[in-house]
Amino acid sequence: MAEEEKPVAELEYELEEPILAYKEEVKVLKMRRPIGADLIRVGNPVIFYPHTEPPKIEHDMIKMQLMIARLSNIPSASIEKIGTRDLLGIAWMLSPFFIPAL
User: What's the pLDDT at 1?
Assistant: First the structure.
Protein backbone atom coordinates (compact mmCIF):
# COMPACT_ATOMS: atom_id res chain seq x y z
CA MET A 1 0.00 0.00 0.00
CA ALA A 2 1.38 3.41 -0.97
CA GLU A 3 2.18 5.84 1.79
CA GLU A 4 -0.22 8.78 2.00
CA GLU A 5 1.20 12.03 0.63
CA LYS A 6 1.58 14.71 3.25
CA PRO A 7 0.17 18.12 2.33
CA VAL A 8 2.84 20.56 1.26
CA ALA A 9 3.23 23.35 3.80
CA GLU A 10 2.43 26.81 2.49
CA LEU A 11 4.47 29.96 2.81
CA GLU A 12 2.60 33.24 2.75
CA TYR A 13 3.70 36.80 2.09
CA GLU A 14 1.29 39.72 2.41
CA LEU A 15 1.94 42.20 -0.39
CA GLU A 16 2.00 45.94 0.31
CA GLU A 17 0.27 46.46 -3.03
CA PRO A 18 -1.87 43.76 -4.65
CA ILE A 19 -1.01 42.41 -8.10
CA LEU A 20 -3.13 40.81 -10.80
CA ALA A 21 -2.66 37.16 -11.70
CA TYR A 22 -5.03 35.43 -14.10
CA LYS A 23 -7.24 38.56 -13.90
CA GLU A 24 -7.64 38.15 -10.14
CA GLU A 25 -6.29 40.42 -7.45
CA VAL A 26 -3.63 38.80 -5.26
CA LYS A 27 -3.07 40.40 -1.85
CA VAL A 28 -1.31 37.46 -0.19
CA LEU A 29 1.19 35.47 -2.19
CA LYS A 30 0.87 31.78 -1.23
CA MET A 31 3.75 29.51 -2.12
CA ARG A 32 4.62 25.92 -1.51
CA ARG A 33 8.01 24.97 -0.12
CA PRO A 34 10.60 24.37 -2.84
CA ILE A 35 11.71 20.85 -3.68
CA GLY A 36 14.66 19.44 -5.59
CA ALA A 37 12.84 19.59 -8.93
CA ASP A 38 12.45 23.37 -8.53
CA LEU A 39 16.17 23.79 -7.96
CA ILE A 40 16.97 21.56 -10.94
CA ARG A 41 14.56 23.38 -13.30
CA VAL A 42 15.27 26.99 -12.27
CA GLY A 43 18.73 26.87 -10.73
CA ASN A 44 19.76 28.33 -7.42
CA PRO A 45 18.37 31.87 -6.99
CA VAL A 46 20.67 32.53 -4.03
CA ILE A 47 24.40 33.14 -4.38
CA PHE A 48 26.13 32.31 -1.11
CA TYR A 49 29.69 33.29 -0.21
CA PRO A 50 30.42 31.42 3.03
CA HIS A 51 34.14 32.26 3.10
CA THR A 52 33.76 36.03 3.45
CA GLU A 53 33.58 37.80 6.78
CA PRO A 54 30.72 38.14 7.38
CA PRO A 55 29.27 35.52 4.98
CA LYS A 56 27.56 37.20 2.03
CA ILE A 57 24.26 36.40 0.29
CA GLU A 58 23.10 37.79 -3.06
CA HIS A 59 19.98 37.06 -5.06
CA ASP A 60 19.88 36.22 -8.75
CA MET A 61 16.62 38.09 -9.29
CA ILE A 62 15.85 36.51 -12.67
CA LYS A 63 16.07 33.04 -11.12
CA MET A 64 14.20 34.29 -8.06
CA GLN A 65 11.38 35.60 -10.28
CA LEU A 66 11.11 32.20 -11.95
CA MET A 67 11.25 30.40 -8.60
CA ILE A 68 8.53 32.60 -7.06
CA ALA A 69 6.34 32.06 -10.14
CA ARG A 70 6.89 28.31 -9.92
CA LEU A 71 6.23 28.08 -6.18
CA SER A 72 3.14 30.32 -6.28
CA ASN A 73 1.74 29.09 -9.61
CA ILE A 74 1.50 32.69 -10.78
CA PRO A 75 2.80 33.85 -14.18
CA SER A 76 6.28 35.39 -14.29
CA ALA A 77 4.78 38.52 -15.84
CA SER A 78 2.67 39.00 -12.70
CA ILE A 79 5.73 38.53 -10.47
CA GLU A 80 7.35 41.43 -12.37
CA LYS A 81 4.56 43.68 -11.09
CA ILE A 82 5.38 43.05 -7.42
CA GLY A 83 6.83 46.12 -5.68
CA THR A 84 10.56 46.10 -4.99
CA ARG A 85 10.18 45.97 -1.19
CA ASP A 86 7.83 43.02 -1.49
CA LEU A 87 10.03 41.26 -4.03
CA LEU A 88 13.07 41.63 -1.78
CA GLY A 89 11.04 40.49 1.23
CA ILE A 90 9.94 37.35 -0.61
CA ALA A 91 13.51 36.70 -1.78
CA TRP A 92 14.80 36.90 1.80
CA MET A 93 11.95 34.70 3.03
CA LEU A 94 12.94 32.01 0.50
CA SER A 95 16.71 32.37 0.96
CA PRO A 96 17.11 29.77 3.75
CA PHE A 97 15.85 27.06 1.37
CA PHE A 98 18.75 27.74 -1.02
CA ILE A 99 21.80 27.91 1.21
CA PRO A 100 23.48 24.90 2.81
CA ALA A 101 22.94 24.07 6.43
CA LEU A 102 26.30 24.86 7.99
Answer: 47
